[in-house]
Amino acid sequence: MLRLISAVGERSARSIEQLGDISIFGCQIVKCFLRPPLRFRPFVKELHKLGVLSLLIIGISGLAVGMVLALQGYIELSKYGSESSLGGFVGIVLVRELGPVLTGLLVTGRAGSATTAEIGTMVASEQLDGLRMMSVNPIDVVVVPRALAMILVMPLLNAIFTVLGLLGGWLVGVRVMGLDSGAYIGSLTASVGFQEDVASGLLKSVLFGVLVALVSTYKGFNSAPTSEGVSHSTTMCVVTASLAILVSNYFFTALWGM
Amino acid sequence: MVLTHPISVDGAPRPEGGHVVLEGVRMEFSDRVILRDLDCDFPAGKISIICGGSGSGKSTTLRLIGGLIRPQQGHIRVDGIDVAALRRTSELEKVRQKLGMLFQKGALLDSTNVFDNVAFPLRERTKLDGDEISARVRECLLEVGLKPADERLLPSELSGGMVKRVALARAIVTEPVILLVDEPFSGLDPITSRRIELLLQKVNKRSGITMIIVSHDPGSTMRLADHLLVMLPDRYVQGTPDELRNHEDPRVTSLLTHEVDDSILEVDHMLDTVIQRGPTDLDSTWA
Amino acid sequence: MGRLAIRNFVVGLFVLVGLASIAYLSLSVGGLSVGGGDGLTIYAHFDDISGLKPLAKVTVAGVKVGEVVEIDLDDDYRARVEMTLDAALEYPYDTSASIITAGILGDKYVELLIGGDDKTFIDGDTITFTESALVLERLIGKLIHNTSVGDGN
Predict the structure, then answer these.
(1) Best C21, C60, C69 residue to mutate vs chain A (most A CBs within 10 Å)
(2) Domain spans of chain A, in order of start
(3) Could you give the dihedral angle defined by the CA atoms of residues A127, A130, A136 and A141, in that order, rounded to the nearest 10 degrees?
(4) How far is A77 from chain B (nearest CA, A)?
(5) What is the Cα–Cα distance from A237 to B1, expressed in whole angstroms?
(6) Is B188 helix (H, G, I), strand (E, B) or coil?
(7) Which residue among B36, B82, B275, C150 has the highest number of C-beta atoms inside a 10 angstrom radius?
(8) Going by C-beta distance under 8 Å and a sequence separation of 6 or more, which residues neighbour residue C105?
(9) Cα distance from A82 to chain C (closest Cα, Å)?
(10) Where do the H-state alpha helices sit in chain A?
(11) What does the pLDDT look like over C49-62, one tens digit per residue?
(12) B12 with B206: CB under 8 angstroms?
């Protein structure tokens, strides 16, 4: 029993220590970012890797999620004769919650893990030590372009996911279920507001971008210089970032409403 | 930073400094002692080779000199400046201008090609313009025996020997006075290995750069070294190759000649228990 | 160099598509108006709006012509609804506004019944003829009351 309690204590002490570590790491990233020059070429390269290459999974998921939302929503709403509110239902759910959260989780799995693995491999192959020996700060060269690209890519992918989700909902609602297209779009635009829905959803995805950027680069940067260490870091990146997204999502939603 | 020396050509004067001294260095990771009271001296302008069993702390010594890790105790003086005492990155970077490092696996940036890899430290740390950088990079690539056609290759397209050559070019492109070399011959066939050996020798003779090389290849060690540091689990032995060739400790001669008298295996096993090293060191061999 | 140029192009395209999606969500779906000034602002007072919300649509003959901007109380404790309407259309002075429910439990919206007056609304005018929301509970209550009165006769 005593051992259990002290194990809990040790675990929590270690997580608090890590939290402090990540904050310091984040400050270093900001410091490096503010010190010119911005490395534009690696930044564009990361935009390609993190953004363009995630498009397929984001697009298909968005479409599929929108379609299933419309299907489920139609069945429930038609019980009350309110099928005409389908657009609003699909829109609000996608714009406020599923867009940012699912995009965050998908990008974590697709791009966050790749970032961690890549930086971890650079640690294992001594590339970061090589940079240090050349008096170059590895955060400058390796971390900043990746973190920035991740933060920019997230709201863009979220918007694309959401728009495709709305399209998927329209396809099922209008083309399959035979709703009036005007009613779908009318209900959608009437229910979804800018400040409380669209702005909140986009800001959420920026927040998730920051979280995934921080976690994935931190885990890679601090991975043990072995193949086992890299794979462990990659797993931990996905676990930590996913949890961070889901938990922070609740708090953001609660605070935004106030 | 501006290059401290003119681009070296044949007969150029030896650069100033390059003297490395370690005093009473103790290094441990978690509860495992890697180095205990290491005292050694690497003379300026000479090729020093560190050899010893795996896990004896050879690479650790190299990383300590580079300031990549910090010892628990002791001083590491690079031309009189104690690297172990430096806390600020800017101070450390001043010392690192004197240092070049050639990593075991090259540590080339794998997203950029050969040319950009070698040009990288110049672009980052000097105010040279594009033409000057190209000229300097081409000169270094030529020096290490790479053809202009190889410039556009990515690290993943290079053979093991070429990786070492490019890494060497990158390490010397800023004209450091000390070159730290980690296992230059590992993973290479004997012929390539010999080529790299001659290359290192040529670079040393031409520019008078101090070289500290970690290696466990006895042949090249005896041919290359001006000075030797042999790291054993319980002691450190220094000297010239001639002094150590007939050393009283049979383990030293085994490391340098590659011939192991089985009787010393017993001694080594006893050493493991006497000095109580960590479990990962039990399989350390120096055969 | 060619490969690099293609990659830059693709990245640029991706960023543009992303920005276009953000713009579509904000402007079209979210109803964020950029200029703000080109709509016609009209007020209407209702006894009961029961569940009408800002951003609800305003229609003429079922076609959307604008939306509810703001709802507050006037001095007589009636609901004052501010709407922006499509300024390209003309709304006669005797146009009336009623609050309608889409379906039985659907969203509330404002339907305008166009009148025949020559004079038309200008910015800031107030609609005089209004019909409040149909409140289901009240309607049922009235029905029961009427039935019981009928029985008494």
Answers:
(1) C21
(2) 37-256
(3) -10
(4) 53
(5) 38
(6) coil
(7) B36
(8) A80, A81, A82
(9) 5
(10) 2-34, 40-46, 55-79, 86-92, 99-107, 113-124, 127-133, 138, 144-170, 181-191, 200-221, 227-257
(11) 878 888 788 888 88
(12) yes
Taking the CB of residue C137, how many other CB atoms lie within 10 A of it? Answer: 8
B133-165 b/e (C-beta count within 10 Å ≥ 16 → b)? beebbbebbebbbbeeebbeeebeebebbbbbb
Q: What is the pLDDT of residues B231-265, one digit of tens each?
A: 887 788 888 888 888 888 777 887 787 777 776 66
CB contact under 8 A, C31 and A193: yes
pTM of the model: 0.79
A116-120, A206-210, B82-86, C16-20: which range is least confident on average?
Answer: B82-86
Alpha carbons A218 and A210: distance in angstroms, whole number: 12
CB contact (8 A) between residue C54 and residue A193:
yes
Domain count, chain B: 1
Structure tokens at B239: 């000297």
**Interface check C58 vs A, CB under 8 A:** no
Q: Which residues pair with B228 in a beta bridge?
A: B49, B239
Nearest beta carbon to residue A126 from set B100, B105, B111: B105
Mutation for testing the A interface, residue in C8, C9, C25 having most A CBs under 10 Å: C25
d(CA A70, CA C130): 35
Buried b (16+ CB within 10 A) or exposed e, A71-94: bebbeebeeeebbbbbbbbbbbbb
Across chain C, the runs of DSSP E, i.e. the strands, are: 40-46, 57-60, 63-73, 79-85, 96-101, 108-113, 126-127, 129-131
Other C-beta atoms within 10 Å of B32: how many? 13
Asked whether the beta carbons of B234 and B64 are under 8 A apart, the reply is no
Q: What are phi and psi of B77, to 5 degrees?
A: -105, 120
B-interface mutation test, from A35, A122, A135, most B Cβ less than 10 A away: A135
- The CATH number of whichever domain residue B265 belongs to comes to 3.40.50.300
Closest residue of chain A to B118, computed from CA coordinates = A134
Q: Is there a contact between B118 and B169 (Cβ–Cβ < 8 Å)?
A: yes
Nearest residue in chain A measured CA to CA from B172: A134
Helix (H, G, I), strand (E, B) or coil at A158: helix
DSSP string computed for A42-63: HHHHHIIIIIGGGHHHHHHHHH
Q: What are phi and psi of A128, to 5 degrees?
A: -70, -40
Of B107, B121, B124, which has the smallest distance from its Cβ to A129's Cβ? B107
* Chain A: touching chains (3 or more CB pairs < 8 Å): B, C
Residue B165 lies in a domain: no
Q: Does the beta-carbon distance from C56 to A190 stay under 8 Å?
A: yes
**CA–CA dist A128, A140 (Å, integer):** 11
State the residue range of the domain holding B21: 17-98+177-188+206-287
Q: Does B204 touch chain A (CB under 8 A)?
A: no
pLDDT value, residue B17: 76
Residue A78 has pLDDT above 70, yes or no: yes
> Beta strands B227-231 and C79-85: pairing type?
unpaired
- CA A187 to CA B223: how far, in whole Å? 84
Provide the angle, in degrees to the nearest 10, between the axes of the packed helices A55-79 and A144-170: 40
Q: Is residue B157 part of a domain?
A: no
